[in-house]
Amino acid sequence: MSDSKAGYSKAAKFYARIMIHSSMLDAIRYYKSKLRESKYNSNWEKNKVNLNDVVSKFTPSKKGEAKGVKYVFRNANYTIKADMPSGYLRIFDNKAKKYVKLDGTPGTNEETHFKIKKRREM
Description:
Shape: globular
Helix content: 25-40%
Distance between the termini: 14 Å
Radius of gyration: 14 Å
Mean pLDDT: 93
């Protein structure tokens, strides 16, 4: 299994240390992401996930890439969007056009947000 968490963490650190200081758009994105985190983090904390496990299940053998404030893993069936500043992810079913729970079935907004575990929690 590849270490998707390492790539995500490296990109998130770069985004927070470099990108938000070099672009007003990225600074705004970062700020909005942190506002979402302060508002919803208590809900996300109820659903903690290991990023490596989620990537292995939904987008196996795919490498992620930074796209704005998100770190994205994509294949034909699913897109995993991991928010770098706030540390949460969502799984999008490309065919059903809906966000899904960990079992792959569509869910509510609250059911489809997952807090990414820190390395020491994995």
